[in-house]
Please model this.
Amino acid sequence: MNKLFVTVINKFSITHNMKNTNISNPSSREVMGQSLTAKQTVGSIQNISKNIREYSLRMRETVGTLRESGAIPEMAEAIREASFAVRDTAKDINEATQELKKNGVVVDTASAVENTLKSAEESVKTVKEITTDAGNASPNTTKAVQEGIDRVKKETSQVSEKVLREVKTKVGAR
Model:
């Protein structure tokens, strides 16, 4: 933990120093671009050390304030409750999908949709035959019947697509 803390502070200090260009204490960006004298190197190290102390103090103050305010236990409790909710929801979903699978609901629904589509196609084919026969007998009737067929075909397709999407959604949830 201490190593991690020191590493984070060092990286933060180096980043902070890279943002602040100072002639007497060159920033890390300047250090990378040129050779430094011993005095300049010592100045850079002192500047980094000073920043580490400052940020360590700020970190202690921030953690102390968080602890005193009760924010840490409150955050931990919120995370705990959220994890329980996620666990319970996942368990409920698993149970529901297992029950659907066990009862064959998804397979039965998909089969029923498939059979409905086949029946609808047969019905459309029969209606087309009737339309052709009626068209030969009465040309004006053909147009009205064809519009009816088109409407039935469109509505059947829309309903079938909706049912298939719902089935796929339920199957995908497993």
